[in-house]
Write a structure and sequence with these properties.
The chain has 267 residues and is mainly α. It has nine helices and two strands. 63% of the residues lie in helices and 7% in strands. It has a two-stranded antiparallel sheet. Helix 6 runs antiparallel to helix 9, helix 7 packs antiparallel against helix 8 and helix 8 (186-204) runs antiparallel to helix 9. The N and C termini lie far apart (65 Å).
Length: 267
């Protein structure tokens, strides 16, 4: 993806070309990431759901890129060029859809589960996975913002890196994809399209740099995948003996003015 930013100011139509390239890049990333995850998940199922470290390479690289961009002059220049291309002419013309769009994929997943269209996990299990992913992403983004102290593009505050909205959006998108990938691949496409739009709007609204958005996306994806892995491990250990035949009898008794319970457990 190559831009000639020197001609942008002199030719307004070149801005549209740059925007198309940025949107195309974001969509390409989303669909490429989805395809990679689908292929890796099929391998996981065949190998008893062992963790495949290839699935974390891309989101980890996104986080590393964002972290380097905080202090790297070359990457800062890339941020400024993309920012100049994305920013609207009227700085007061902002879109607030990103405040709601970040939660939309998870809302779809939990809503479908609630009305009986069950995904990979039951409703309570799915809610626990999504809740844990939010704990993980906030445990990473909030302290990182305080440590990095990166100035926002609009100059209002030093909590730019990483983008919390984008982290939430991609965690939500990955959650929808994982829960309903066996129903249809389009659930993942829908979720990641919403997440990419959220990331774009964070730049359009002058709240974040490109590297902030990229790192936030990586954090969100990793948070959800880590949450599902932990939940599945916990569930398998807690209920690994649920199919074994056992006989348990619990009965109340009364004898000589004494009330109690009798337990009979047969292995």
């Amino acid at each position: 993806m190559i831009f000639n930013f020197n001609t942008i100011k002199n030719n307004p139509f070149s801005i549209l070309i740059v925007l198309k390239k940025i949107i195309s890049f974001l969509l390409f990333f989303c669909f490429a990431h989805i395809q990679n995850l689908y292929s890796q998940d099929s391998i996981n199922v065949q190998k008893n759901r062992k963790v495949k470290y290839k699935t974390v390479i891309l989101p980890t690289a996104m986080i590393i890129y964002g972290a380097i961009a905080v202090n790297d002059l070359h990457l800062k220049s890339v941020n400024e060029d993309i920012h100049e291309a994305v920013l609207p002419n009227d700085l007061y013309k902002q879109q607030h859809l990103d405040n709601y769009l970040q939660f939309a994929p998870a809302g779809i997943a939990l809503g479908l589960n609630a009305i009986g269209i069950r995904g990979k996990h039951h409703f309570l299990g799915a809610a626990m996975i999504y809740g844990m992913s939010n704990i993980f992403l906030n445990a990473f983004t909030i302290p990182t913002k305080q440590i990095s102290q990166e100035l926002r593009p609009n100059g209002l505050g030093n909590l730019s890196f990483p983008s919390g909205h984008t982290a939430e959006a991609f965690a939500s998108a990955e959650f929808l994809r994982m829960e309903y990938q066996n129903k249809s691949n389009w659930y993942g496409v829908l979720g990641y399209s919403m997440a990419c739009m959220t990331g774009y709007l964070r730049m359009y609204n002058n709240k974040h740099w490109f590297s902030d958005v990229l790192a936030g996306a990586g954090i969100g994806i990793l948070s959800t995948r880590l949450s599902e892995w932990i939940y599945d491990k916990m569930e398998s250990r807690l209920f690994k003996n649920k199919n074994k035949a056992t006989h348990t009898l619990l009965m109340p008794y009364y004898k000589e003015n004494t009330i109690g319970l009798g337990l009979n457990y047969q292995f």
